[in-house]
Write a structure and sequence with these properties.
The chain contains eight helices and six strands, in the order E-H-E-E-E-H-E-H-H-E-H-H-H-H. The chain is of the alpha/beta class. Strands 2-3-1-4-5-6 form a six-stranded mixed sheet, with helices on both faces. The chain is globular and about 45 Å long. The mean pLDDT is about 90.
Length: about 200
């Protein structure tokens, strides 16, 4: 089976780890080998959280620089920061809604210009899919459903060997019951947003 390497980057509290668990569960449902590892920065304080997932036949979860097939970014500047994992064969899917770090809030740093950020990503990768996931999550009924919007966008690309049906089944089993309906709606919004870009 072809190996597909996915990097997910987010700021603590955005639901990166839940998204990874949903994808892992969907892979199990689909009988697809998957390996995953996570790096927790200062997640509780808005630090970076990174997940690496390898689908298919592979012996390691390590994704070296330039080896990612797809980068899923929950926060634009974190997507930019993870660009070293990408190459001209990588598809990048990113949320466009910034969550400026503490240094920007205190005036010690400057947040990158979103248009320049998009241009830079486009120059260094195969394709950029940029989604305002916060707006779509709000439409679904919960701003915290950004992770599910981005999962929908990711699955619509067809890069991962997972069907929308199996990911939705994983959402039903991996997310809290009172959020399932909203999460499924958010997934559909993300899925539809990318479909409309084609």
């Amino acid at each position: 089976m072809k190996t597909t390497r996915l990097i997910i980057v987010a700021v603590g509290g955005q639901g990166n780890l839940l998204a990874s668990k949903v994808l892992g569960e969907a892979a199990l449902i689909s009988d697809i080998p998957v390996r995953m590892s996570e790096i927790h920065g200062m997640a509780q304080r808005g630090g970076v959280v990174e997940s690496s997932m390898v689908f298919g036949d592979a012996e390691s979860t390590i994704i070296s620089n330039g080896d990612a097939d797809v980068l899923l970014g929950f926060e634009p500047s974190e997507t930019l920061r993870a660009l070293n994992k990408c190459s001209l064969k990588t598809v990048v899917i990113t949320n466009l809604s910034p969550l400026p770090p503490f240094t920007v809030a205190t005036g010690q740093g400057v947040y990158p210009d979103i248009d320049q950020l998009k241009d830079l990503i486009r120059k260094k990768t195969k394709q950029l899919i940029a989604v305002n996931a916060v707006d779509l999550a709000k439409m679904a009924g919960n701003t915290m459903a950004v992770n599910m919007v981005l999962l929908g966008a990711l699955i619509q690309t067809g890069i991962l060997p997972l069907s929308a049906h199996n990911v939705k089944e994983a959402i039903k089993t991996r997310t809290r019951k009172d959020f399932v309906k909203t999460n499924l709606k958010a997934f559909d919004f993300g899925f539809g947003a990318v479909e409309n870009m084609r």
